[in-house]
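Need tokens for this chain, all 219 residues.
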Amino acid sequence: MTLRYLPNPELSRRHLLIGSASALSLWLLGCGGGRPSAADREADESWAGSLLDPPFTKPDVQLTDFHNRPFPFIESTRDKLTVLFFGYTRCPDVCPVFLQTMAAARRTLGSKVTGLQVLFVGVDLEHDTPEALRTYLGAIDGTFIGLTGESAEIDRAISELKMAPVVIREPGTSGGDDVGHQARVFVFSPDNLSHRLYNHDVRQREWVADLPRLARGGW
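Here are the structure tokens for all 219 residues:
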């Protein structure tokens, strides 16, 4: 099955779509397998996320959690169902909508999915301090984990996941920085691979359907 990369026209102007070169590199990942069969396409349509073929591996980076504890990404997420999103605490739209949706899905799932780990990496290092991440995420879901780190490590994680670089523009007339980042969601299954790429605007019921299947090793 090839990756079906679905550009999202609903992204706000503050969030960058993949540039043409990055989009091409993502598309090429799925070229070797040829066209999917009709059966594969029918099965794939039941998923909210696009298939990554081959799957993505975890970025080998050293981050810090919002309690100022080391968070070596591969070790800290090993064998866990892990949802990874890059955003910023002052985001006016995409980030809070995604996080609220994921929080509602987690509450709905309850014990149906154990060990779910939702990680939010703050890309605006000037403002996304550990304290700011704790306050921001604590108001949404107390189980979510905020991550920060050296800019080089965050940039490396973004690069390894084939996303466009973060852009932090000069403060505008509104008094706030305009942060451009890619609103994509990676879910690493317990096999430590990301088999599907999700848009930020996946609905609660779609997460409720997909997460248990990913936890069981389906994709």
